[in-house]
Amino acid sequence: MLDSRSHLSYSEWIVLGSFFALFVTLAIIANVSSERARESIETYQKTESKKIFVHIAGAVECPGTYEMEGLEKLKIFVEKARPLPEADLTSLDLESRVEEAFSVFIPCKGWIQVRVKGAVKEAKTIRLRVQSKISDLLSYIECTEETDRRFFRKKKALKDGEEVEIPKKKIKKNNFS
Predict the structure, then answer these.
(1) Whole-angstrom Cα distance, residue 50 to residue 71?
(2) pTM of the entire predicted model
(3) CA 98 from centre of chain
(4) Is residue 32 pLDDT above 80, yes or no?
(5) Burial classification of residue 67, based on how many CB atoms lie within 10 Å of its CB (0-12 exposed, 13-18 middle, 19 or more buried)
(6) How far apart are alpha carbons 113 and 105 in whole angstroms?
(7) 120-143 burial, b for 16+ CB within 10 Å, e for fewer?
């Protein structure tokens, strides 16, 4: 005859089975996690020594192609190009890691329109980046022979909707009488 103290009750079997199921589940999870970790390490090691090229253009001081080793954050490439104060970085995921070569165009936060008239070949409206200055206008207009180019030395910031009158040279009168 069997001693009743050596047998497990139904509820004890359920508890024991639950612990066994929990142990098996944890073992499976640990194995899957270690496989994923191993794959991540292998991927990182493969790309770590790989040179990555990113071309950055737009609202930056130093546009161009930047080269780095391994998986770097996009933020590092953008910082090297030195974004301008009016650069709009909100559309970029700066924390993402760069895995392969690509191009990035950094837009401006805004644009302004300026009407230019006076001593120019053609009066026109010009679209410029925010914080553009009078000195920036020279590359957008055609000057006449009468244009006073000293005007473009000004560093005054232009405003949206502003009308800029380009002055003529002042002619010195000689009195030879």
Answers:
(1) 8
(2) 0.40
(3) 12
(4) no
(5) exposed
(6) 21
(7) beeeeebebbbebebebbeeebeb
